[in-house]
Amino acid sequence: MLTPHVLTIGSQFPPAGQAPPPAASTSVWLVDTDDRDGAAARLAPEVLDPAEQQRAGGFKHEQDRRRYVASHVALRMLLGAWLDLPPGRVRITRAPCPGCGDPHGRPVSEDGPVHFSLSHSDRLALLAVGPVPVGADVETLPEASAVAELAGQLHPREAAELEALTPEERPAAFGRLWARKEAYLKGLGIGLGRGLALDYVGTGDTPATGLPGWSLTDVAVPPGFTAAVAVTTGR
After folding, report:
1. CB 104: neighbour CB atoms within 10 A?
2. CA–CA separation, 40 vs 53, rounded Å?
């Protein structure tokens, strides 16, 4: 179980004493977007690009907008520290989709050799930044109805593992599985466009091994959430 760094959104760039210099390993960060959303809102006009600001303005609910702003300000703080750029000058685009080739694959930076992934659920945002492709996912634990609805779409071994559990155990097990699967698919850059039954990630306390070229790790998060990161091994 990986314990992430905790990122506090502040008024200085880069976040003093928090963002490590570029290194050979991937770092994982956790942000409570409700804790410092006011600071993020003050920084947003000079940090977010026009597309992000337009997206933020399109949210129907104020809480959703503030959480989006806080998570994306945090991402740009980390990328700016990695690239030695002001966060507002970091250019983010999309790589080609591995499935169809259209520009809606994994988000990438135009400013240097850095890979990153951002996920947010409820008040938490999980960010991974490193020198190789990575995927991150954080989820709130699902309702029993969601487990029942999606279990039949999973890898047969995963579906069998869930079926063997008691109804009370299934939401936590499904949450672990879903975060791992989302992290891996985001790392690939294809997302849920790839069938859920193709890859086995497991429902147990530790992720399954054997994904070609990738390593999966669970991330420690507060009760009620589950999270994972996938990092390419280059093999």
Report:
1. 16
2. 12
CA–CA dist 19, 199 (Å, integer): 33
Residue-level pLDDT at 192: 73
Residue-wise pLDDT tens digits, 22-52: 556 899 999 999 997 899 999 999 999 999 9
Q: Name residue 190's amino acid.
A: I
Torsion of CA 93, 98, 104, 107, to 10 degrees: -30
Strand partners, 93: 108
Interval 48-91: pLDDT, tens: 999 999 999 999 999 999 999 999 999 999 999 999 999 999 99
Cα 86 to Cα 112: distance, rounded to the nearest angstrom: 14
pTM of the model: 0.92
What are the E-state strand segments in 54-179?
A: 92-94, 107-109, 115-121, 124-130, 134-140
C-alpha of 178 from chain center: 12
- Please return the burial class of 156, using the count of CB atoms within 10 Å of its CB with bins 0-12, 13-18 and 19+: exposed
- At 149, the amino acid letter reads E
Q: Which two tokens stand for residue 86?
A: 């002001």
